[in-house]
Specification:
By secondary structure, this protein is an alpha+beta fold. The chain is built from 8 helices and 6 strands; from the N terminus they run αααααααββββββα. Strands 1, 2, 3, 4, 5 and 6 form a 6-stranded antiparallel beta sheet that branches. Strand 4 and strand 5 form a beta hairpin. Helix 5 runs antiparallel to helix 6. The N and C termini lie far apart (42 Å).
Length: 277
């Protein structure tokens, strides 16, 4: 028998699912900045997006397929290496950051449970399969970049949310005549790791919700620009180790889950904005 949750407690505790719609902020997709290990395959920036309430209301009319709801407000990606405060030089700040991570993980897990048992109903209650999320993100990453290199808009339409798709479409159209890209994933340097997994109820539509995960991918890859005669443009094609934080999402619409899609990439959270807010 499925567990039940007192609604009043959920409304005050599981904030990702119960905050008013205006609290779910729409933000733009951002390209991963070049790090010490090289530059990632160019991820296009998204255009300014509509508010969540307007987006969902429009998607609910007719059979519209609008699926770009933005990055969920409050998404936290733990900074790594030199991007986080040291326990030795800044112990108080580091403890505050670790506490924030713990609280965020706890709330996010509660939101995921409510997504499954509160929004999902039998016989279509979603099977979360949380352990498969990293593998799914890695597979989408591979398919998406291969499709972009090949100029395969049909595949990109299946894999990407609306904002990301439009940017890919624009970049493909601007390629020089006769030039093509060859993107190669040589190996995964580290196992894909889920660093954030959240859920939110979508207003205005009964049985609608969104699950969004951020997966850290670290891989050795190369991107070559190919001339019409098959030669490689000088200065391209070099293998680099790239770290990316890929955002993937899965929408529930009228209590039925849709396939996973790619929203874009994000940066690690700036710890100063967490500790000193």
């Amino acid at each position: 028998m499925a567990p039940t949750f007192p609604r009043q407690i959920l409304c005050t505790f599981l904030y990702p699912l119960t905050r008013p719609p205006h609290c779910v902020r729409i933000v733009a997709q951002t390209a991963r900045r070049q790090n010490s290990k090289g530059a990632a395959m160019p991820m296009p920036r998204a255009m300014p997006q509509k508010s969540l309430r307007v987006a969902v209301k429009e998607a609910a009319k007719g059979n519209q397929t609008f699926n770009d709801m933005g990055l969920l407000d409050g998404t936290f990606i733990m900074p790594t290496g030199v991007n986080k405060p040291s326990f030795f030089s800044l112990p108080r700040e580091r403890l505050k950051l670790e506490l924030h991570r713990l609280i965020t993980r706890f709330k996010d897990f509660g939101a995921i449970l409510y997504y499954k048992f509160g929004i999902g109903k039998k016989p279509n209650r979603p099977r979360l399969k949380l352990r498969n999320t990293g593998r799914i993100a890695a597979a989408l990453h591979l398919q998406m970049y291969n499709a972009f290199a090949d100029g395969d808009l049909h595949t990109l339409q299946r894999l990407c949310t609306d904002g990301l798709l439009e940017k890919f479409r624009s970049r493909i159209a601007k390629r020089p005549m006769g030039e093509r890209l060859q993107w190669t994933l040589h190996k995964q340097v580290r196992t894909p790791r889920v660093v954030s997994h959240r859920a939110v109820v979508l207003p205005m539509v009964e049985g609608a919700a969104l699950r969004q995960a951020v997966v850290r991918l670290e891989s050795r890859q190369s991107l070559a620009r190919m001339r019409q005669d098959g030669s490689v443009v000088e200065g391209t094609g070099e293998e680099k180790v790239i770290r990316e934080y890929l955002v993937v999402q899965r929408r529930m619409w009228h209590r039925l889950e849709e396939p996973w899609m790619v929203w874009g990439t994000v940066e690690e959270t700036d710890w100063k904005g967490v500790v000193f807010k």
